[in-house]
Amino acid sequence: MAAKLRKGDKVIVLAGKDKGKQGAIQTVMPAKGKAIVEGVNVAIRHVRQSQTTQGGRTPKAMPIDLSNLALVDANGKATRVGFREEEGKKVRFAKTTGDAI
Question: What is each CA distance from 10 to 5, 49, 56, 101, in whole angstroms?
């Protein structure tokens, strides 16, 4: 099955503690059905100090389920993703505006 959300896409969170936040996808894990979005679902991780790095509390973006994400269209609103053929190529398009992504 083709991926509706890909690395670099701008998405909005539909559900959860970060509902309404927007960000770009950094990593997609299709086998797990999750993605890492910058600035969303951030947890504090405690890092031990070593000879090369300073220890302390560092924020880390954790994976969020793909079902809780929606692509942001040209108008800045959440949209679903569809597929169609254009000039012999399969392209993604935003269902709200009809624009190719």
Answer: 9, 35, 30, 11
